[in-house]
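Bug #77: duplicate submission created two jobs. Keeping one. Sequence:
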Amino acid sequence: MASTAVWQAIDEMTRGGFGFHSIWKNLPKLIEDLDVEKTKAAAGLKK
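Kept job's structure:
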């Protein structure tokens, strides 16, 4: 389940005045499913 921060980021991206276009409709689901810690580890970033 996505954290509150993830939902806030998705809300900001889609309704925050950045000109979110429906062509990118897959991005919210991609971000919702993203394992941030796994991605950081794969990128060699500290937790």
